[in-house]
TrEMBL record:
Keyword Ribosomal protein: no
Domain of life: Eukaryota
PANTHER family with a match to the protein in the record: BLUE COPPER PROTEIN (PTHR33021), OS09G0541100 PROTEIN (PTHR33021:SF179)
InterPro entries, alphabetized: BlueCu_1_BS, Cupredoxin, Phytocyanin-like, Phytocyanin_dom
Ranges of residues in domain Phytocyanin: 28-128
Region (Disordered): 127-149
Range of residues in the leader sequence: 1-27
Protein name, as recorded: Phytocyanin domain-containing protein
Molecular function per GO: electron transfer activity; metal ion binding
Biased composition (Pro residues): 136-145
Organism of origin: Aquilegia coerulea (Rocky mountain columbine)
TM regions (residue ranges): 160-182
Cellular compartments per GO CC: plasma membrane
Keyword entries, A-Z: Copper, Membrane, Metal-binding, Signal, Transmembrane, Transmembrane helix
Length: 185
């Protein structure tokens, strides 16, 4: 009885690790502007076309705090660069992590005067995660031109670490079970 309970506890624990691993594999982190970060003098429209974004992904805006900020706005405000209305979220940490939680169009601007008009603005369409699980999980990452940071590397590493931990914990717990089982017998 005791042994069964113990085993079930461990199975439950391992299940949690598996689930969190799957969760990690699904979400990807994209640094806006890649190595260039969130700054003036960059084509964010072009950047926004490079990736396909899915629900659960995270956008990271890197900049010197105080020099820029990140506003999620409505499409109208994105187009007009007039933020007297249409602000949905505001971030100003210099390392803003924006979780893309909904399948919808997201619009971002920098609200420092003239930065939006100067090009610090872009929109992305976030889609529901891979709807056909039968197909390959991830397309191969685009060739890493100019050392650009794409989300796949981070995800692969996260996945590997998680799977290693899972294996270690799994072996350890089952060994523990075996030892307890032997002692009681
Ligand atoms: C994004 O999705 C489109 C259509 O599903 C595909 O053709 C394209 O290769 C994808 N782009 C990337 C960077 O994965
Ligand atoms: C921004 O919009 C508001 C009202 O929508 C308007 O009163 C204001 O003049 C606009 N600002 C600029 C700089 O166009």
């Amino acid at each position: 009885m005791k042994i069964t309970l113990h085993l079930m506890n461990n199975l439950f624990f391992i299940l949690i690790i598996i689930l969190s691993t799957i969760n990690q594999i699904k979400s990807e982190e994209y640094t806006v502007g890649d190595d260039y970060g969130w700054n003036t003098g960059f084509d964010y429209f072009e950047w926004s076309q490079k990736y396909n974004f899915s629900v659960g992904d995270i956008l990271v805006f890197n900049y010197v705090q105080g020099q820029h900020n990140t506003y999620e706005v409505t499409e109208d405000t994105y187009r007009s660069c007039n933020s007297s209305t249409g602000i949905l979220q505001m971030y100003d940490s210099g390392n803003d992590k924006v979780s893309l939680t909904e399948a919808k169009k997201y619009w971002f601007i920098c609200n420092i005067p003239d930065h939006c008009r100067g090009g610090m603005k872009f929109g992305i369409e976030v889609k529901q995660g891979s709807s056909n699980p039968g197909s390959t999980p991830q397309p191969p990452p685009p060739p890493p031109t100019q050392g650009s940071n794409n989300g796949y590397k981070i995800v692969q590493i996260n996945g590997m670490v998680a799977w290693t931990l899972l294996a270690i914990f799994g072996i350890w717990f089952f060994e523990l079970d075996f030892l307890i089982y032997c002692k009681i017998i």
